[in-house]
Amino acid sequence: MDLFDEITRAHRELLDGDRKVVTLRRSYDADVEDVWDACTSAERLSRWFLPVTGDLKLGGKYQFEGNAGGEILQCEPPRLLKVSWLFGDNPGFSEVEVRLSAEDGGTLFELVHTAEVPPEFWAMGGPGSVGVGWDLGLLGLSLHLSGLPQFDESTFHLTDEGRRVIIESSEAWGRAYEAAGGAPDQVAAAVANITAFYAPEEESS
To answer: Which Pfam families match (predicted)?
Structure first.
């Protein structure tokens, strides 16, 4: 699998208002039921995303290991899943919605993340602050659906392919930011910051 090609296959959008809305849309060569199961089964989520605990049904609470948790707000198998997506003790509004639909023998996958973002955090990273993480997560989903081994997140940025993937993702979210009205200097700073965060240069000995 060409991981760079997997990243370029996705379509990204930003609505830049009081609440920030990032949308990531791409296709998978798997049927809707399989993609739905991969996104809602605790056992399968642990194989491509993160271990998850909780009551994985409508109204239940969940927690990803070392990451977000929240409540399952809507669950309409195998088409729609909506959850609150919260970090820390005093999080602001944050929701993630996943929509699946059949497309040419495969699945059209759409993820919409809507959040209230502190201005200083947005100025630092723009949409890439969550977008790059989602890109890498959905790359993991693609590998999982194809029956291929996962990449090692701790060292992925040190490989030539990993750096290329991360840089393309960061720059793609920069283009979405600019298309939504972001000033060129703000966009450039956000892309540089997010690239440095996800793909830091290896320190020389």
So the answer is: AHSA1
Domain count of the chain? 1
Residue at 204 is within a domain: no
| DSSP structure class, residue 126 | T
Range of the structural domain that residue 55 is part of? 3-198
Residue 28, classed as helix, strand or coil, is: strand
Burial class (CB in 10 A: 0-12, 13-18, 19+), 184: exposed
- For residue 156, name the pLDDT band (cuts at 50, 70, 90): very high
CB-CB contact of 101 with 25 (8 Å): no
Q: Could you tell me the CATH number of the domain that includes residue 44?
A: 3.30.530.20
Q: How many residues appear in the chain? A: 205
Q: Residue 170: what residue type?
A: S
pLDDT of residue 90: 66
pTM for the whole structure: 0.95
In a domain, 135, yes or no: yes
68 CB neighbour count, 10 Å cutoff? 17
